[in-house]
Write a structure and sequence with these properties.
Blueprint: H1 3-8, H2 15-46, H3 52-76, H4 81-89, H5 93-111, H6 119-129, H7 132-142
Helix pairs in contact: 2-3, 2-5, 2-7, 3-4, 3-5, 5-6
């Protein structure tokens, strides 16, 4: 069974699933962008020469960490902290990593890796749209949500 068979095996027209996948993706985007933007901004304010690839790599790692932290906090209101952390770390890393990479490539291509006000909405849009089909697919095919 090839990828086209898998993609064709689900319906891509289910509005409730798109809404749920979009909501989940937005939560992930919020968590990821806190660490991502914070890291890039910190290096900009420090004005220390540091290779862009290293800054972006660290931004991706910090974005993943803050996303897991935010999800743990949200879930801890519904379950005990240990279960919340296990659930948060079990989120789809494919979704989070693709989001982070898309955001950082957008920043580097458009600004050379400098965080300026006008690139942030573009980064957020690209970060949202990149993992959305995967999140929809995962939700529709397996009934599993990344959040």
């Amino acid at each position: 069974m090839g990828i086209s068979d898998i993609i064709e095996s689900i319906s891509w027209t289910c509005k409730p699933t798109w809404r749920t996948a979009s909501k989940n993706t937005l939560w992930c985007l919020l968590g990821c962008s806190i660490g991502d933007f914070g890291t890039i901004f910190l290096f900009q304010m420090a004005e220390e020469p540091f290779p862009v690839i290293w800054i972006m790599s660290l931004a991706i790692i910090n974005g993943l960490i803050t996303s897991i932290m935010l999800e743990t906090f949200i879930l801890s209101r519904q379950m005990d902290l240990n279960d919340a952390l296990k659930t948060a770390t079990g989120m789809s890393l494919v979704s989070m990593i693709s989001m982070e990479i898309a955001m950082n490539i957008t920043d580097v291509v458009l600004t050379g890796g400098v965080l300026v006000w006008w690139v942030i909405p573009i980064m957020l849009f690209v970060g949202f749209i990149t993992p959305l089909p995967y999140n929809y697919y995962r939700l529709k095919k397996y009934g599993k949500s990344c959040h």
